[in-house]
Design a protein that fits this description.
Trna Endonuclease, Chain: A, domain 1, single chain, about 35% strand, 6 strands, globular, six-stranded mixed beta sheet, alpha+beta
Amino acid sequence: MDIPSSKSPLHTGTSKQSGDAAEDLALRYLQKQGLRLLQRNYRSPGRGGGEIDLIMASPDGTTVFVEVRSRSSGAHGGAAASIGLVKQRRIIFAARHYLLRQRQTPPCRFDVVLVESAGVQWLQAAFDAS
């Protein structure tokens, strides 16, 4: 589902500031869809570890690991094209590390939220751990 963005977070200064603004926008969007924030910017330790932008809980109890991608332009495939296999493996590694801390392993999925000049697009179950 696409929604137009009232203000673009894509040109707010440094790439860190732009990334933080995109995460803020994605978080607000997901919360409006009924998801609850569990953790933000979770990092797994060690070399080759990964980071998960947002870890959310859906109303049905699913833990949702969310990668937020933003691009100011659709050139080179836009935001979706920037999530390659290496990036997916790092997210999966971090998710497994996060799940080790849980008493029970909940149902999980990997979503991507794209923040582009046209708005926000939420890709549910964008990739899996297999």
